[in-house]
């Protein structure tokens, strides 16, 4: 087995004695090309959101964007050298819409190439929604799998705003135009509308699971239940316990590949994109860097990361009232 490399389509080397030339080369995208039989590893790592993937920020966790993943799926589908795909999932879920978009992309890709799944630490809710789009699912013994369910809600800061003696007068036109407003909660009609959307989303989720895992018993596995990887295999939620290497080697064996490259997707961001993402994360941080570090020092790295990840997922409710995300508990003693 051979690992795939980044290959520049013009094999030229920069003159390291010229700093201006070196700097300009850093902003040139590196085009990756396959040179022989290849297995693609598509990474779903982080909370699932609509749009583009984003890196970890000062007070935001890394996210997986549906647009970024769909573009990667299209790129994989067009490359005839890529003979199979491993979807590597490590996600607590997130946007229901984005999860469905990614599932549809994998469903179409599976018509052209075999798509298998390898679960890292977690494939919960939206993460499992995507996982059932694969033909086979490998899990670690300690992987957290399942959470076949939906959550709904909104962020309302009305009481906090009143205590701060801030007066906000919402202005909206049309029915339900202010559903995502941050001042007040939902009225009865809006609550009923969200409940209906939750029921529709749950029905679609369970149908996707039954389509991908025909032998599964939803009476034992659905309704938000979480399982360890070894139990998920016994319940028919996954096929076998194994690592990413196990999944890759098993797929290669089934394809009859004895020498092949591995190529990771999505492509790594260019230097220019990394600079833009870093600056964007700095500008969009809800509080100053000094206060963030103070909060980290008070809570400790583990609690700070849990708070940051929980806030990142909760903030999705500002735009989408129904989510596919694993439940979480924050405890401060």
Short description:
This protein is an alpha/beta fold. The chain is built from 12 helices and 13 strands. Strand 6 (about 115-125), helix 4 (about 125-130) and strand 7 form a beta-alpha-beta unit.
Lay out the secondary structure:
Elements: H1 19-26, E1 38-45, E2 47-49, E3 63-65, H2 66-78, E4 82-91, E5 93-95, H3 96-109, E6 115-124, H4 126-131, E7 137-139, E8 144-146, E9 151-152, H5 158-163, H6 188-212, H7 218-221, E10 226-228, H8 229-234, E11 240-241, H9 244-255, E12 261-265, H10 271-284, H11 289-299, H12 301-314, E13 322-325
Parallel strand pairs: 1-4, 1-12, 2-3, 4-6, 6-7, 6-8, 7-11
Antiparallel strand pairs: 5-13, 8-10, 9-13
Helix pairs in contact: 2-3, 11-12
- List the uncertain runs: 2-14, 277-287
Helical proportion? 25-40%
User: What general outline do the C-alpha atoms trace?
Assistant: globular
CATH topology term: 2-enoyl-CoA Hydratase, Chain A, domain 1
Task: Provide mean pLDDT, rounded.
Answer: 78
Class by alpha and beta content: alpha/beta
Number of domains: 1
CATH class (first level) name: Alpha Beta
> What is the string of helix and strand elements?
HEEEHEEHEHEEEHHHEHEHEHHHE
Overall CATH architecture: Alpha-Beta Complex
User: C-alpha Rg, in Å?
Assistant: 22 Å
List key phrases describing it.
333 residues; alpha/beta; 2-enoyl-CoA Hydratase, Chain A, domain 1; 12 helices; globular
């Amino acid at each position: 087995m051979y690992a795939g490399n980044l290959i520049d389509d013009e094999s030229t080397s920069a003159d390291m004695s010229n700093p201006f030339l070196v700097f300009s080369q850093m902003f040139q995208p590196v085009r990756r090309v396959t040179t022989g039989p290849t297995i693609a590893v598509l990474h779903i790592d982080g909370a699932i959101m609509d749009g583009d993937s984003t890196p970890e920020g000062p007070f935001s966790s890394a996210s997986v964007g549906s647009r970024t993943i769909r573009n990667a799926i299209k790129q994989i589908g067009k490359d005839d050298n890529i003979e199979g795909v491993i979807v590597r999932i490590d996600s607590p879920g997130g946007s229901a819409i984005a999860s469905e978009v990614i599932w549809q992309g994998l469903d179409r890709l599976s018509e052209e190439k075999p798509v298998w799944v390898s679960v890292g630490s977690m494939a919960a809710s939206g993460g499992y929604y995507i996982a059932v789009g694969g033909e086979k699912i490998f899990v670690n013994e300690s992987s957290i799998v399942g959470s076949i369910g939906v959550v709904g809600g909104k962020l309302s800061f009305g009481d906090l705003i009143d205590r701060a003696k801030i007066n906000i007068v919402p202005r909206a036109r049309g029915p339900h135009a202010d559903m995502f407003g941050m001042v007040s909660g939902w009225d009865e009609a809006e609550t009923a509308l969200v409940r209906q959307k939750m029921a529709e989303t749950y029905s679609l989720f369970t149908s996707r699971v039954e389509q991908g895992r025909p032998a599964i018993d939803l009476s034992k596995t659905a309704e938000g239940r979480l399982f360890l990887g070894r139990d998920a295999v016994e319940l028919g939620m996954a096929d076998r316990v194994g690592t990413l290497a196990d999944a890759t080697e098993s797929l290669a064996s089934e394809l009859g590949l004895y020498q092949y490259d591995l190529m990771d997707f999505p492509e790594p961001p260019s230097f220019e994109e990394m600079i833009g993402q870093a600056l964007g994360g700095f500008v969009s941080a809800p509080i100053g860097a000094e206060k963030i570090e103070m909060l980290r020092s008070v809570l400790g790295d583990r609690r700070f990361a849990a708070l940051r990840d929980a806030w990142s997922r909760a903030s999705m409710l500002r735009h989408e009232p129904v989510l596919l995300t694993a439940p979480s508990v924050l405890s401060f003693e």
